[in-house]
Amino acid sequence: MALKQIDHGTSEYLKMVNLRDIVLRRPLGLTFDHDELMAEKDDILIACMDDEEVLGCCILAKVNSHTVRLRQMAVPDNLHGRGIGASIINFAENMARDKGYKLMTMHARYSAIGFYEKFGYQIKGSQFREVNLPHHVMEKNLR
């Protein structure tokens, strides 16, 4: 298992998009559109790889000079509990720190709040709906 930053438009990126589609989109009856995927070209794309297979992933999107937003964190249900998500979070936080970010924020699905709390993320503000699911903004100071 290896964690790495991948490039937009590569075969690894297409595998990442497929994983996100299977884990995050299809269960909600949603799909990606071309413009949405093109908007990711300047984001930091992180994948957990086992040979050529993407086991998990996330995206870091710049909010401003000191804040980055974690998006599209995905690990298949059958791989939960194997430390893949924890490894991705740690890798993403280290990468964000290395790039000078001080704060990581996210829109966390209600069902994932407990997972993120284990890593020091805190709920900020009231619950809201996004992609027809309850979410909370969560943040962590990266210093």
Could you explain the architecture of this structure?
The radius of gyration is 14 Å and the shape is globular. It has helices at residues 11-25, 34-38, 84-98, 113-117; strands at 2-6, 44-50, 53-64, 67-74, 103-109, 122-130, 133-141. The mean pLDDT is 96. The protein contains four helices and seven strands, in the order βααβββαβαββ. A hairpin with a 2-residue loop joins β3 and β4 (67-74). Strands 1-2-3-4-5-7-6 form a seven-stranded mixed sheet, with helices on both faces. It is an alpha+beta fold and 143 residues long. The two termini are 27 Å apart.
List the helices and strands and how they pair.
Layout: E1 2-6, H1 11-25, H2 34-38, E2 44-50, E3 53-64, E4 67-74, H3 84-98, E5 103-109, H4 113-117, E6 122-130, E7 133-141
Parallel strand pairs: 4-5
Antiparallel strand pairs: 1-2, 2-3, 3-4, 5-7, 6-7
The total of helices stands at: 4
- What strand line-up does the widest sheet have? 1-2-3-4-5-7-6
Cα(first) to Cα(last) distance is 27 Å
Helix coverage percent of residues? Answer: 25-40%
Beta-strand proportion: 35-45%
Low-confidence stretches: none
The helix/strand order is: EHHEEEHEHEE
Rg over alpha carbons = 14 Å
Question: Whole-number average pLDDT?
Answer: 96
Q: Report the principal-axis shape.
A: globular
Task: Tag the structure with descriptive keywords.
single chain, 143 residues, alpha+beta, 4 helices, 7 strands
